[in-house]
């Protein structure tokens, strides 16, 4: 095709076997897009294409990535806000006919039958070295190993006693990322040795926790995706079993609810986010 379709925050360049997405670097552009810069999405990594009405006089052209094709979306596990979805192109409503044309052209180039999950990652992620500051540690990834260097002001006693940690990729079986967008999140490494991990993330030396201003999505998510891609290249990735949340100290829950209330009063958390997260915390009692 060789054409370019420009929207808000990004432009898509259509090629015979891929779509090159170039993200803007303006002040209004989501920070995740600015970090990604540009991404080449092979058509074999696309499961479908949709064009839907957007907000305030816009339309949205979106590619649906195949399961397992993009490590960024795999590790995000549906936690990204719509505005930070790298597969959405938002356009003015008057360009709907043009967007429909490109949607049809893309659909015509996709396999007629459902290809199913991808056997390997097809969309590249940011290359190492990468690093970011979590609430309790500085996390670094050099392409071969993940390192956590604890902050004495944030790390739990259990982590501080365990000492700084380094995890070779070959010894990992997977990566778990929880978004810090609402209240708290974490990045947790799953080891191939099967050693039982503490139920609470802040007690697990194979994890770092996020807080307000620490471990932001645009820093921690590309980091997690790069680690996952390296783990996948090193061997099969084990999907961690889902376990019931452990009951926590009531005093700890009360403190977290108090902090959540402060974020709500400061306007950093919406009414809905406050209610949902408060219910989640109370359920842990």
UniProtKB/TrEMBL annotation:
The residue ranges of the DUF4429 domain are: 12-106, 139-227
* Record-annotated SHOCT domain positions: 255-282
- Its domain of life reads Bacteria
What InterPro entries has UniProt attached to this entry? DUF4429 (IPR027860), SHOCT (IPR018649)
- Protein name as catalogued: DUF4429 domain-containing protein
| Taxonomy of the source species | Bacteria, Bacillati, Actinomycetota, Actinomycetes, Kitasatosporales
């Amino acid at each position: 095709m060789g054409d370019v379709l420009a929207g808000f925050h990004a432009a898509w360049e259509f090629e015979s076997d891929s779509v090159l997405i170039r993200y803007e670097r303006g002040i209004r552009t989501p920070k995740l897009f600015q970090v990604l810069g540009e991404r080449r999405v092979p058509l074999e990594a696309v499961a479908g294409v949709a064009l839907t009405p957007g907000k305030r006089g816009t339309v949205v052209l979106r590619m649906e990535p195949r399961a397992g094709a993009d490590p960024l979306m795999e590790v995000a596990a549906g936690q990204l806000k719509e505005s930070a979805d790298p597969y959405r192109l938002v356009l003015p409503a008057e360009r709907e006919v043009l967007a429909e044309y490109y949607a049809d052209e893309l659909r015509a180039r996709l396999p007629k039958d459902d290809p199913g999950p991808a056997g390997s990652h097809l969309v590249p992620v940011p290359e190492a070295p990468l690093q970011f500051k979590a609430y309790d540690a500085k996390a670094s990834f050099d392409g071969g190993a993940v390192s956590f260097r604890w902050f004495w002001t944030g790390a739990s006693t259990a982590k501080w006693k365990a000492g700084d940690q380094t995890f070779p990729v070959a010894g990992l079986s997977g990566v778990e990322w929880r978004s810090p967008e609402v209240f708290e999140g974490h990045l947790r490494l799953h080891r191939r040795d099967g050693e039982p991990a503490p139920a609470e993330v802040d007690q697990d030396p194979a994890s770092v926790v996020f807080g307000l201003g620490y471990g932001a999505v645009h820093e921690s998510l590309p980091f997690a995706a790069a680690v996952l891609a390296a783990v996948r290249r090193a061997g099969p990735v084990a999907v961690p079993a889902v376990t019931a949340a452990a009951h926590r100290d009531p005093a700890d829950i009360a403190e977290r609810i108090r902090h959540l209330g402060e974020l709500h009063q400061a306007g950093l958390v919406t009414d809905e986010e406050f209610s949902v997260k408060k219910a989640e915390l109370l359920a842990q009692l």
